[in-house]
Specification:
Layout (H helix, E strand, L loop, with lengths): L17 E2 L4 E2 L18 H4 L6 E2 L3 H4 L17 E8 L9 H20 L3 H5 L3 E6 L3 H5 L4 E9 L4 E2 L18 E4 L6 E6 L6 E8 L9 H8 L6 E4 L2 H6 L3 E10 L6 E4 L8
């Protein structure tokens, strides 16, 4: 399931991430329990998930605790790619969503980075994240203890098709992969969207977190790091923190002048937090 806080973080606005300047995040729904009865035998293709398999999942599918859909050929449309199947860490099965996501990032991070490629800063600029799935109740009753980690390109509205050869970011990130921000008129809640869609905010500055900074300290440190920008700030998603991609992002507004196609960037005026 996706323990990215989407809706947050899919770091964030997809599941944790965008905060500051009094703007509120839309919290993601807590994962729903699997509806697969404990007595139902899992299909054969679910008994042994493998890295490299592709899946055509909706955002609702990605948010589920378990995936019971059959993999699809990677030559066909797909929205997730399994990067690793690992023994499920205990920390990924209980506790706050941010702690579970961090644990997933720790154990699946190397495989995630291998499939995406690019450097740490490039990865954190994008909507790519980790989704993870546990065995169904029927599988768990038979002793299954694995966790499947998938890479997904998602915002809080939909999962986008994965395109291109691996590593996916080997030639840099495209506009459809890059993360921008928007909020509807009169709405104080943020969301992350692809930069190819209508948006009001773009990242201005990326500041790498000091070594040893914990995810629990990230919000406070991001606010401090972006103070000079006097605008909005966000920080890497908890699973990104677990992967090791730990950044603070300072944002600014984008305004299209009505009389031209010129895009001008302006700093946001600071507003009281709260």
């Amino acid at each position: 399931m996706v323990r990215t806080l989407i809706a947050t973080v899919v770091a964030g606005l997809t599941l944790i991430g965008l905060s500051g300047c009094g703007l509120d995040l839309k919290p993601g729904a807590e994962p729903k329990p699997s509806r697969v009865p404990a007595t139902e035998a899992a299909p054969a293709y679910l008994d042994d998930p493998k890295a490299g398999e592709c899946h055509d999942l909706t955002l609702k599918d990605i948010a589920a605790p378990s995936d019971t859909k059959k993999p699809v050929p990677c030559s066909e449309d797909h929205t997730t790619l399994t990067v690793a199947v690992v023994p499920a860490p205990e920390k990924a099965t209980k506790g706050p969503i941010s702690e579970r996501a961090y644990a997933v990032g720790e154990v699946c991070g190397e495989a995630f980075k291998k499939v995406l490629g690019g450097d740490s800063k490039t990865r954190v600029k994008t909507l790519y994240s980790l989704a993870w799935f546990m065995p169904t109740k029927a599988q768990a009753a038979k002793g299954a203890e694995w966790m499947r980690c998938d890479v997904t390109l998602s915002d809080q509205h939909r999962a986008y098709l994965l395109k291109g050869k691996q590593p996916l970011l080997d030639d840099g990130a495209t506009e459809r992969e890059l993360r921008c921000g928007r909020n509807e008129a009169g709405n104080r809640s943020w969301e992350f969207v692809p930069c190819t869609t209508k948006h009001q905010y773009v990242p201005r500055t990326f500041i790498e977190a000091d070594e040893g900074t914990t995810f629990e300290e990230a919000e406070k440190e991001a606010e401090k790091a972006c103070f000079a920008e006097r605008g909005l700030f966000s920080w890497s998603l908890p699973e990104q923190w677990g992967v090791g991609d730990r950044w603070y992002i300072c944002w600014e507004t984008v305004e299209e002048e009505a009389a031209s196609n010129v895009v001008t960037l302006e700093r946001l005026a600071a507003t009281p937090a709260g």
